[in-house]
Amino acid sequence: MASKAFGAGKRNLLMHTHSLLRNGAIPKPLWYDAVVRNPPFAPPPVGPLKEITFPEDKLLRRYYEKNPSSKDEVIDVFDDASKVPAAVFVSKQLKLI
Fold first, then answer.
1. Of 16, 55, 79, 86, which is the most exposed, with the fewest CB atoms less than 10 Å away?
2. 56 alpha carbon, distance to own chain's centre
3. Model confidence pLDDT, tens digit, residues 22-49
4. CA 27 to CA 24: how far, in whole Å?
């Protein structure tokens, strides 16, 4: 029953608790008065997210267009000193920009 009330998104917890209290189905919870005085904010509307691009993204895309076989390079994530050629290319290009 509760999953139907909350799953549809039509009722929130405060409204549901209020109706249960009004009908005498449950005793008043300790948190009820505090939530009535300070109701939670409504979540902001979620719209389509903008795509975030960095200059590195364009440089990497260009590098991989020119060197498609370099996509198969093995990356050692435990060694900070080793860099794949694509990362070296991007860092040098960013210094020049």
1. 79
2. 22
3. 999 999 999 999 988 988 787 788 888 8
4. 7
Give me the residue label for tokens 């189905």: 25
Using the structure block, give the residue that is written with the tokens 């691009």.
53
| Residue 74, both tokens | 């093995």
- Mean pLDDT, range 51-76, rounded to an integer: 87
Q: Is the dihedral of CA 53, 58, 63, 68 positive or negative?
A: positive
Closest residue by Cα to residue 57 from 94, 17, 24? 94
> Long-range pairs for 70-75 at CB < 8 Å and ≥24 separation?
none
**Nearest residue to 16 via CA among 7, 49, 30:** 7
> Which class for 77: exposed (0-12), middle (13-18), buried (19 or more C-beta within 10 A)?
exposed
Burial of 90 (0-12, 13-18, 19+ CB in 10 A): buried
Nearest-angstrom CA–CA distance, 67 and 63: 6
